[in-house]
Known about the structure:
The protein has helices at 4-7, 26-30, 43-50, 108-132, 150-155, 165-181, 200-223, 242-252, and strands spanning 12-13, 62-71, 75-83, 89-98, 101-104, 134-137, 141-144, 186-188, 195-197. By secondary structure, the protein is α+β, with helices and mostly antiparallel strands. A five-stranded antiparallel beta sheet has the order 1-5-4-3-2. It is rod-shaped, with a radius of gyration of 57 Å. It starts with a helix and ends with a helix.
Amino acid sequence: MVDAKQLLQKSWFDSAWTPILNQNNVMDYFCQRSNPFYERTCNNEIIRMQRGDPAQLVNMIGTEYSLLHVQDPILYVIRKAHRQSTDKVTPLADYYILGGVVYQCPDLATVINARLLSTLHLVHSAFSEAISYARYDPTKGYYWEFPDDEPEKRGTATITEEPNEIQRKRSDLLLAELTKKFPMKAYTSKEMGKPLIISEEVKADVKVEVKTEKEVKVVKPLTEDREQPASAKRPIQPPLDTKTVTDFKRKRT
């Protein structure tokens, strides 16, 4: 027996019956043995083999096929049911013949499942396409860039955008941190008497130059080897002995 899920993907037709198909012979067309949707153990096959009247199906118990809806000459609906009594019938499946081709009608769960899958596929593809247009910039944040906007931007001149509130707050915080780490110092110039701002690098260069000048001034007299004049020279006294020192002290006393 063929699985019901596999029958949903199948169809059957007989080209010889298509031109002459109508309400009177549609059941004979459906009850052919080559039709995969038709069960040979049903009550309809028993009546056909016995050449009985189809009206006797009401008095039989088991699986049967009956014509449910007719829309000549295109659409015919046939129902498969299990009869338990003359009044109690349980539907099992429905089949429709459209233009001579037989199809099985899907059940409600299959229809909902197929619609949900197609909807989720479309939603997923829409999100994937939307993510491909998303861009991020540290100054702007997240924004959209669609391909339709590129020709307009190329033809027009660049427009300066004003910073938003988030950009202003970020720049203010960065400037405040920089001023705390590197405060600005003011110095007075000798010429104009006005405050002059000098960076740390210039200030270090000035200090180095002053030091080098002082070192040159101190080192100059030491490095030069010049002769002193005769007037500046003093006579060299001989060293005094201990006897002369004692004699000199006695004379004074």
